[in-house]
Protein 1
Amino acid sequence: MRLADFDTLTFDCYGTLIDWETGLAAAIGPWLERRGLKKTHDEVLETFAVCQSAQEDETPAMIYSEVVAHTLRRMAAAWGVAATDAEAEAFGASVGDWPAFPDSPDALRYLKRHYRLAVLSNVDRVSFAGSNRKLGVAFDAVFTAEDIGSYKPDLRNFDYMLARLAEMGIARDRILHTAQSRYHDHAPAQKIGLKSAWIDRRHGKKGAGATVPTTLERAPDFYFTGMAEMAAAHRKEVAG
């Protein structure tokens, strides 16, 4: 199997193109200091993963900025403290400010010359607009949880994306889903027979970070440690 076997790349955004672990840790840092909480980076990420997943399961129609706001409230409760409405809302509003991984913009600009690019993200439209400005590329399609009314790993999100892409004349076997999260992306992609490329942003690190730990039935079809590595692999294929 080669990257050139596909003509459409569908992307998860947060964790794959946008460095959400750095972004959310920076956003929550001042709140932790005000509450006098001494939490390691891994503790913050792991608690966020559990609390966010629970919130998304309970309120699948809630837009993502509000999910993140409620996630802070859940994290606070888990740690025996409180978060004010203003603090929760500020945390939720931070999503569009989370930084892009340094290699994302250049890699996307290169891949745009060879593929149609689409996004399937657990986000709302307003937050994604802020992130998209950091990525600097015009996607051919953007599918958000706000559009669909549910959150990955719900298969509804993938079914929605595939149906909309089919309307654009894009066949399933020409799509390569590209993502970091095993939980949100690779496990459901495997369930529906969609090929995937793992962008392992956490290579060399322990744990699953801000995502729920997940064991896959098989390895993803491609493996890269970053977007620059994926772009370089495509260049190598093209060069023959």
Protein 2
Amino acid sequence: MGENLPGGTSGIGDDETLRLLSMVERTLTSRIDDALRAQGSGIDQWRILSLLAECGGQPMTAVAEHAMLLAPKLSKLVDRMVAANLVLRRPDVEDRRRVLVAATERGRAALAEWDVAVVAVQEELRAALGGEVVQLTELLRRVHAGLGSAVVAD
């Protein structure tokens, strides 16, 4: 870390850092999406079901933030997932005005298959990082927290 790049910069905090972060994100997202498409899914469905399986029923705002989707795209995707019996909508028992999205048994079974498809990509990342996965995760958490709330991409 701290090696000088052409032009005498260390690469920290300059355009190269941002470019590298973008390249890694795009590469990993593409590989995960390819693995999931082979299973008849996509990264957005996987992210949604991962959240719901881990945290139970969630309001659409929480699902949108986790999946990094804008409300209109999320709504259409959740409609398709409801039609496929992967998720269901139900009223929040604490606030009847609010609707929660929850994983169905079929959704949990699909997620288990999709998780298997993603393992190879996760292993590639672990292999590239060696023993530094935990450190990278902590650094990314700090950067995310330091930059404030997430901006939804799609």
Protein 3
Amino acid sequence: MLLGDFHRGRRLRRTAALRDMVRETALRPEDLIQGYFVVETTDKNFEKPIPSMPGQSQLSVDKLVARVGKAMDGGLRSVLLFGLPEKKDPVGSGAYAPDGIVQQAVTRLKETYPELLVVTDVCMCEYTSHGHCGLLDAHGEVQNDPTLDLLAKTAVTHAQSGADIIAPSDMMDGRVGAIRSALDDAGFTHIPIMSYAVKYASSFYGPFREAADSAPAFGDRRGYQMDPANVREALREASADMAEGADFLMVKPAMPYLDVLRLLRDNFDAPVAAYQVSGEYAMLMAAIANGWLDRKRALLEALLCIKRAGADCIITYCAEEVLGWL
């Protein structure tokens, strides 16, 4: 074989400048959405670290506003809010109360930082005393259609508080259509919906249930979240949500489902979001704490592979930290 008769890929990897020039995928500050847990409390200085999610805390509204402001100084542009109400009940009334905890937090954030993009999670599990994502019948089964009214009501109160994007995560059939109709009727035709279109019944949600105090009191959520073994079903779910008016599609979790993320990217023109969930974050942080992974390289690589698979935006708990490296 004559010299030069084979592919010399190393030519374009030789220096940092060459590698930067030919890099196919870039991670940008505007790609990242930081998740926060806000608590309804009279203690304005409330901050409770979440043991299974190092670096993350449950925060009072005042603490949230301060932390977000600091993160924005570092380049943060978008947040996703989860609420922990002071009291729970069987119908999750705190979710759709006009003065509920997420509604309070959105109002304060938008008053303080008008340029901040605020996404709100719409679900019932943090607010119901039984921990399920909808109303229950006498047999303990989640009722789909009656729950839709409450989800739509919640979405409208979030929009009234100033939310920029509504993100329903409950996995009730028809929720996107119900929310779209309610938002439009209330005059919020301009507010987009980021649907958790493809949300699997994943074991990687464990730390979140501690963080949001949302573990089911009995049973599990496999009756409404997707089976991890299924991939064609993802296309059906995404197609249904698009038909009902979704503006974004989401895959959750992210890294264990990169094949599904790519499937949505190849089959839909809508923006695709991916959620690097609490279990993914916890695994990375545990390995980093043990010295098994390099912190900066591991966190950046994990996010970059999600972006490479097709995500337009990524919900993550490490956005604050990663922004300092971009």
